Amino acid sequence: MTEPLKILYVDDEDDIREIAGMSLELDPDIELRTAASGSAALAIVQEWLPDLILLDVMMPGMDGPETLARLKQDEVHGSVPVIFITARTRPEDIECFLGLGAEGVISKPFDPMTLATQARELFTRVKG
To answer: What Pfam families does the entry give (predicted)?
Structure first.
């Protein structure tokens, strides 16, 4: 039996976080935790090391890019791949997010039926 893919989903909007959570948990090989803010995500990562972080870009307080920057400063957790989930998907936006160190971008609104597959495909591409 293979280890489950551990995903941390971070979004400040309760309804989107709930839909994403239900969508990702449809995959029996995904272990999921969620966070409502960048600071909550950083706290979770200290106690539970995910394989992948799905991170909303626009959040109050600490936004996605700032959360990613703080993760990258951490020697232990800085190597966890981060994929932004955002409505900002113009080519120049995506280029900027990749330049910040994100491994990919999933557009909002996402398709709940394919979110787990998209996340898994991006993770596989990153980890080879």
So the answer is: Response_reg
